Amino acid sequence: MGKATVQERTLIGSPENAASLQSDGPAVDDPGRRGQIVRAAADVLARQGYGETSLKDVAREAGVAPGLLHYYFESKQELLLEVVVRMEHEMIQDWKLAVADIEDPIERIVAALDHAAERCSQQPEFFRLLFDLYNLGLSSPALRVRCAQMWAHFIDEIEAEVRRVLGRLPAYSVVPPRDLAGAIAGAIDGIALSGLVLQQSPRELYQALKVLLLSLVVTAYVTAGQEPPIARLTSLLARA
Prior knowledge:
CATH class of the domain at 87-239: Mainly Alpha
Strand content: under 5%
Low-confidence stretches: 1-29
Number of helices: 12
CATH architecture of the domain at 87-239: Orthogonal Bundle
CATH superfamily of the domain at 87-239: Tetracycline Repressor, domain 2
CATH topology of the domain at 87-239: Tetracycline Repressor, domain 2
Largest sheet: none
């Protein structure tokens, strides 16, 4: 096996990058120079896209010398990774806050997917950058490892929510929580991608996903020998 490039060693082994994918995610409010650069990069990348953004553009936005960027980031790919990880962390924390006070499992499902639809509509730039990152990862083994770690972290967060919801239903799902979480994660990203490609609102597809997940609620009641709350489910779906 050949020696890893400097870029690959940085992507895999950098302490800063390793910390960014821990369970609590990166610090959103980073007052340091690195945080200043990442916030500037997020603004420029959101406006121009990855392909049209240079490190000089980021340095200009951040108000720092271009050479300083290379002190913190070996490449534009590494900077994109940092931006996406931080944006995803913020979105996950925002989603958790949106459902934090909801104990009812059915209401949590509805609120979580309504929130996902809203964020997908309001922050399409996050998903554009996310898919740019995935695309780059397909041709970079080191970056693909980091993308896989980020994806696994996303599924971890969804799995925790799935287990919380399933634990409050009258019967457990026949689908393993990890598999269900992976399917939900794939659906969320896939719906966002279709919205970007077709330039259409993703809300209708998120509504369809909501129907599919609420059907698991019906299954749970039937499995437990109880009458499913069809009228209530219908009312919640009509409320969207």
